Structure formats: structure tokens, C-alpha cells
Amino acid sequence: MEEKTINNQREMREQILKQSKNLHDDIRQKHEEILAALERDTQELRKDKTDRSTLAQLFTELAIRLNQQ
User: Fold this and answer.
1) Chain segment 55-65, per-residue pLDDT in tens
2) In Å, how far from its chain's centre is CA 13?
3) CA 43 → CA 14, 27, 46, distances in Å?
4) Strand, coil or helix: 1
5) Is the pLDDT of residue 12 over 80?
């Protein structure tokens, strides 16, 4: 009986360790995926956003044109 209990405990520990490793790997993978998505989105925003000085020049030119009419 005692030997069976010890074997059961060992099997449970091994299962817990295996599940822990799997969860760790899953979390690491999700972390890497999130970081990659964040980097992609950041690069896209940097590429697509309007520069403040460009926007200021556009508004200045628009104001000059409106004043000339």
C-alpha cells in the first residue's frame, strides 16, 4: 500500500512538472507572439502617422490659400 502511494505521488509530481513545463512554453510563445504583434503595429504607426511639422506646414499653406481668396 505504501509503495503504491509513493508511486502515485511520483506520477502526480511528474504530471504536474510536465504540465508546468507545457504552460511555461505556452506562455513564452504567447509572449513572443504579442511582442511581435506589438512591434508590427508600432512600425505601422510610425510609417503611417503624419509628422507634426508636415501637418503644420499643410495647415499653414491652407491658411495662406484661404487668406488669398
Assistant:
1) 899 999 999 99
2) 33
3) 43, 24, 5
4) coil
5) yes
pTM above 0.70, yes or no: no
Please compute the mean of the pLDDT values over residues 15-39 and round it to a whole number: 97
DSSP calls for the chain: -HHHHHHHHHHHHHHHHHHHHHHHHHHHHHHHHHHHHHHHHHHHHHHHSPPHHHHHHHHHHHHHHHHH-
| Dist. CA 8–CA 28, nearest whole Å | 30
CA-to-CA distance for 2 and 48, rounded, in angstroms? 68
Rg of the chain on CA atoms, in Å:
30
Residue 30 has pLDDT above 90, yes or no: yes
